[in-house]
Structure prediction request, 116 residues.
Amino acid sequence: MTAADRLQVLLDRACRGVATPAEAEQLRADVAELQQQVAAFHEGEQPYEDERVVPTPSQWIWQWNRATPEQRLAKAAQVLGTHDRLDRVRQALLRHGARPSLASAVHAALNDQAPR
Prediction:
């Protein structure tokens, strides 16, 4: 039984037991709207489970949306830390006389090595 099926069973039980016909209809409409919002939230995602390959953006988002809060905070810290380090490398290159195009090229090369 899928999560949607279980939700429908619970909804039916709640409507039979405690709700007036009008309340039951409103509850069903509210649940349908929430289901549409959840579907819209996940629109465009693609499942990703093979850690050996770099995920596409839609796979990265799929993985992010299924991570625990702790995992999301750790990943955000990792990404922000990497961005900060890359920016410091670029700034150091510029301070030491590197041409802006060289600094940008090094920054781009290091960015390709950033965690995903």
Observations:
- The radius of gyration is 24 Å.
- The chain has five helices and no strands.
- The chain has a mean pLDDT of 81.
